[in-house]
Amino acid sequence: MIKKLLNYPLIKTSGIYTITNIINKAIPFFLLPILTIFLTPTDYGLVSMFGVLIGFIGPFLGLNVHSAINRRYFDYDKNFTQYISTAFYILIASSSLVLIVIILFSDVVSEITALPEKYLLLVVIAAFGNSAIQITLSLWQVRERALNYGLFQIIQSALNVTLSIILVVGLDYGWLGRVSGQVIAISIFAVVGILIIVKRENLKFSFNKVFAEDILKFGIPLIPHTLGMFLINMTDRIFITNMISISETGIYTVGFQIGMIIGVLQDSFNKAWMPYLFKNLKLNSNLVKIKIIKITYGYFIVILLIALSLSLLAPFIVNVFIGDAFEGSIVYIMWISFGFAFNGMYKMVAGVIFYERKNKLLSIVTFITAILNIVFNYILIKLNGAVGAAQATALAFFVSFILTWILASRVHYMPWNIFKYRKEEN
Fold this sequence. Notes:
This protein is mostly helical.
């Protein structure tokens, strides 16, 4: 029975994603004890805000071209190489526009994030590199080459960490050393990823107006959705930086990274889940849909139990692995853990909406949740201090999950009440 279960395609692929994703995320996680010794909470706060800014400009710079490739792979058998090529042209054009905007408003950006103006170019470079890498990863994902996907990320993370240790510990570059390690690793692997695509796809760079319209039609409506998810994920750190201190942002970020263990697990499963879901929904069978829902409900239970377990282990993890200056991060871990569990539950039901290409509706839901998250952060931080930011994140993810589930039930029929459906069948 166990052997049969392990050979089940979804479980097998998900297992590969999970193992490689855990290794990938464990590499920088084990860097935490080093960074929390050699970096101050203020340094860590600046590193965090660097990541926040990458996350903010990412949707505008990348225009979700990798998501369009991911979805359209199942529709275009011919000329898909030209589709990929057109996506790269769009990526280059949008990156140039974002760079111009960053240059024009560098003083405002610097004031909000506390990052020095002269280093903002690194943010654009990293965001462009991430988008290029995502195209490579998306192609592996839709072709269910989980091992390639995982190894690529693991090697990138290993280089990232190695460079960071050299620059932070060996050369004493502080927060800039950590940021530079990330940018160099991303840049190298963006180039490697593009070369892999060019060779594997026999890519000849050409532009197709019809494909460009399709990519933009798919990707642009996702900007509010992606931006909304960014606001849900990152608003907490922006508020803490501006309402409390950049130092507390650093402490909060350490707790967030530990709670993100749940994020790693749910993201790993989701990478295997989406291709599986799309293929099975095309069958349009109620029996298959019931099977999908059983997996979904089982997932809900498991991810919540894992979040609870991590919450209970939080004091041990911090006391053993983290520097004394970051001991205050314990209070954030439980809220962040459950927040990521709710986010994983959201992804399970959101796939139905992506399948129906109702991106605009999902964007509206996500953006509404993001606005609520801003309100939650302001109120809860005022009431409870920095821990209110973690509480706001968990609440926002829960609201996002519930609203998305309601929307999913409207755009595509799924027998969510499987007991009722069985009764009707009998």
